[in-house]
Design brief:
In chain A, strand 3 and strand 4 form a beta hairpin. With 111 residues, chain A is mainly beta. Chain A is built from no helices and nine strands. In chain A, strands 1, 3, 4, 7, 8 and 9 form a six-stranded mixed sheet that branches. Helix content of chain B is 0%, strand content 50%. In chain B, the strands form two sheets. In chain B, strands 2, 4, 5, 6, 9, 10 and 11 form a seven-stranded mixed sheet that branches. Chain B starts with a strand and ends with a strand. Classes of the chains: A mainly beta (111), B mainly beta (119). The interface between A and B is medium-sized, with 29 and 24 residues.
Chain lengths: 111, 119
Amino acid sequence: QSALTQPASVSGSPGQSITISCTGTNSDVGGYDLVSWYQQHPGKAPQLIIYAGIERPSGVSSRFSGSKSGNTASLTISGLQAEDEADYFCCSYAGVTTPLVFGTGTKVTVL
Amino acid sequence: EVQLVESGGVVVQPGGSLRLSCAASGFTFDDYTMHWVRQAPGKGLEWVSLISWDGGSTYYADSVKGRFTISRDNSKNSLYLQMNSLRTEDTALYYCAKDISGGSGMDVWGQGTTVTVSS
């Protein structure tokens, strides 16, 4: 099972919106509504920000939203803030043989 | 407070064995699927293994299949990862994580324990 493809880096100015893509296949991203997204600050454990493709856990800002089109899932961060500077990883269910696969990760920089 | 605390990470020689533990608290442990996820230094996240709530189903990444064994003891609220035939490429920070529901995401993570495989 190959890692899902994410852009290595995305940047934006405070207040702007950015979108991070996560491209897989119809055996993972495209086959299930089970994509999750994680934010990871340096030296910290990952934090779940989106699950089941579009759902936000309690306590996660509404500035984070998830979507999917075909084999590509996307995370949008609106009203970009300095605290959003972090690494972001997508993850998808990929079937019973190897159930989960992560994306390659995206470094978000707030200019 | 919902919490996961990993332990057991050390420096081990290639070919060696190690058992990681993860102590859970603050939630009903035996209601949830649990995962191990690892992160090599400076690299991304890699899913390693999962175990169902009752231990009846286990799954592994191809990179560890046949070498690692996941298990749990619900009476002790604990998750384990037995790691055999270790390779240098297994060097990583190992996290345990709680599944939110049906593989849709991992909502609670520990702080990780470091495994270094080196001669």
